[in-house]
Amino acid sequence: MMHPQFRIEMLHDHMRELEEAAHRSRLLADRPEPAPVAAEAVALRLCSVGDDDALERLAALEGRRVPAGRHLVAEVGGELVASLPLLGGRPLADPFRPTAHLLPLLRLRAAQLEGQPRARIDAAKAMAARMLHPAR
Asked: Which residues contact 102 (CB under 8 A, 6 or more apart)?
């Protein structure tokens, strides 16, 4: 036989899960259907304070919390659809849009941002030298 207090706790947990699922479905219902576009522009950038609501939406759609710290985000057609936390962790992505092709781009850009400043300076110098002296 189950202890009554344990049963009450289980019911409360189940109620919270149902409320979260209802919240996610309301987010989806309020979202307009994207117009089909053959080739949409993709923008990768660092997140800003104005992206907080969009990051919360992505996290809610995945049933997770927004990871702490800065994020590298991907926008398609002006809408934030994927995010990669720069401090590490799993990326957030809109499960109802094709985003698999964006995740490698986000990881590549994050790796570029992590590069040592000295390495970037040396690469810029080498590129400038090749442009100034193409015969070498």
From this structure: 42, 74, 76, 81, 82, 93
